[in-house]
Amino acid sequence: FHLADGRVSTGHAGVLLAERRGSYPLIDLCILKSKSPLSFKYNSRKVKRLLSFQRYCHNSRLLRGLVPHTPGSLHLLDDDYLGQAAHMLSKVGTWNFDIFLFDRLTNGNSLVTLMCHLFNVYGLIHHFQLDMVKLHRFLGMVQDDYHSQNPYHNAVHAADVTQAMYCYLKEPKLAEQLSPADVFLGLMAAAAHDVDHPGVNQPFLIKTRHHLASLYQNTSVLESHHWRSTVGMLRESGLLSHLPPDMSQDMEQQLGSLILATDISRQNEFLLTFREHLDNQDLDLQLASHRHFMLQIALKCADICNPCRVWELSRQWSERVCEEFYRQGDMERKFDLEISPLCNQQADSVPTIQIGFISYIVEPLFEEWHRFTDPSLLSQTMMGHLHKNKARWSLLRYAHNSEPQAHSQTELLTQSSFS
Ligand SMILES: [Zn+2]
After folding, report:
1. Which positions fall inside the PDEase domain (predicted)?
2. What is the pLDDT of residues 155-208, one digit of tens each?
3. What is the pLDDT of residue 415?
4. How many CB atoms neighbour CB 184 within 10 A?
5. Measured distance CA(6)–CA(39) in Å, rounded
6. Residue 55: which pLDDT band, with cuts at 50, 70 and 90?
7. Which of 153, 225, 226, 370 is flagged as catalytic?
8. Is the Cα dihedral 217, 325, 145, 97 positive or negative?
9. Are 262 and 419 in contact (CB under 8 A)?
C-alpha cells in the first residue's frame, strides 16, 4: 500500500472491493495527519474491516435507532408505519410530499420503496421484462452506498430528487412525448446521481490528492464516480443482462450523460443552451436527442429544487447542506488546509449561503424551466415558494446581522457541491 513517493496508495478500493465503495475521504486524511507517511501503516485487513463496518452500520436498523426495541410491538408498529407510507405513496406526485416523513415511515428505505412504486406506476418492470429480485438487489445496493452519515448527500436526498424528477416527468409539456426508456433512465439517474458521495466537494478531493481526483483527471470527479459506481452496480446485479448488449451499453452511456449534467460547474453551459432553444422555439421532443437534453435539464432542476419546496422542507435541506459544508471546513481547519468558500461556519451563515445559491444558481434555471412549461401549475407553485423562501432568508439574514458582506459571486457557488 505504499508508493515510492511516500503516499499511501488509496487503491484499496480497486483491490479489495468494487471501486464504488472506495470514496471514503477520511482514509486519505490520515495521510495528511501523520508526520512521517511511512509510519502510517494500513494492512489490507484493517481497511477491509473498516469498510465492512461502514456497510454494517448502513444495514443495521437497530444501530440507526429506527426500530423500537420492544420486540412485541415491532411488527405492529412496522405495519402501521408501512400503512402510512403506502398512503403517502398514493400522493407521490404532489409537490409538498414530505420525504423526511416518508423515510422514517419506511425505516430508512425511502429510495428503494419509492423507486419500486414508480416502476410499477409506469409499468417499467413489465415493459423491460425486469427481474424483481435483480431490481431489488440493484436498488438496495444503490441505497446502501449512499453515506447515511452525510447530513445532505445521503439516500434521502436521492429519494427527494427522484420524487421531484417524477413530478417533472409528469409535466404536460413532457409527459406525452417521453418513451418508457426515457422515463426509466430519468428515474434511474435521479436515484443514483450522487451515489457514494463522500460528503466533501471536488476541490477538496483535488487538494487532498484523493485517488478519485487523479482517476478522473480533476474533471467532474464526483459525478464520474457516481456514474461509474452505478454502472458497476448495474453489472453486478445483472439488472440489464437480459437486454441486447448494444441496448444496455446505450443505457449506461445515457445514464452517464444525465448524471454528469448534474455537475454544477457546467451550469452555465446548460443554461445557455436551454435559453437558446426556448428563444428559438426549436425544441422538438419527437427527437430523441432533444428529449435527452430535457431529461438533463429536468434532472438538474430536481437536484437543486430544495428552495422551490414549501418552507418547512426547504429550510431542513438548507440546514443540512450547510452542515455538510461546515464539516468540510472543520476538516480543512484541522488539517491546516485553506478553508473552502462557503465552508466557514463563522463567516458563512446559512441565510447568506442560501440567498447566494438562490440568486445565482436556482432562479436563473427555474425561470427558464417556468418558460418551458408554459408555465404549468407546478411551475407557478415552485416559483411562489422560491420567492417566499428567498424573502424569508433575507429577513433571517437581516435579523442575524452578524456579517456585513455576503459572498455573492457565482464563482464561489459553482465551486461548491450543492447538487
Ligand atoms: Zn444531488
Report:
1. 77-400
2. 999 999 999 999 999 999 999 999 999 999 999 999 999 999 999 999 999 999
3. 57
4. 21
5. 10
6. very low
7. 153
8. negative
9. yes
Q: Identify the DSSP state of 2.
A: B
Residue 364 has pLDDT above 60, yes or no: yes
**Spacing, Cα 145 to ligand 1 middle (Å):** 14
Report the amino acid identity of residue 252: E
Spatial separation of the C-alpha atoms in residues 406 and 401, rounded to whole Å: 11
Q: What is the pLDDT of residue 242?
A: 98
3-state secondary structure 121-185: HCCHHHHCCCCHHHHHHHHHHHHHHCCCCCCCCCHHHHHHHHHHHHHHHCCHHHHCCCCHHHHHH
Within 10 A of 398 (CB to CB), how many other CB atoms are there?
9
Residue 127 is among the residues annotated as catalytic for this protein? no
Closest CA to 214 of 414, 13, 33: 13
Secondary structure (DSSP) of 291-332: HHHHHHHHHHHHHT-GGGS-HHHHHHHHHHHHHHHHHHHHHH
Whether residue 114 contacts residue 92, with contact meaning beta carbons closer than 8 Å, is answered with yes
C-alpha cell read off for 338: 485553506
Per domain, the residue ranges of the chain are: 12-59, 73-303, 311-415
Per-residue pLDDT tens for 215-230? 999 999 999 999 999 9
pLDDT tens for residues 92-142?
Answer: 999 999 999 999 999 999 999 999 999 999 999 999 999 999 999 999 999
pLDDT score of 51 more than 50 = no
Q: Which residues surround ligand 1, an ion (CB under 5 A)?
A: 194, 303, 419
Q: Which three cell numbers stand for residue 212?
A: 478519485
Q: Which CATH class is domain 73-303?
A: mainly alpha
Better pLDDT: 416 or 314? 314
Cell 411488527 sits on residue: 75
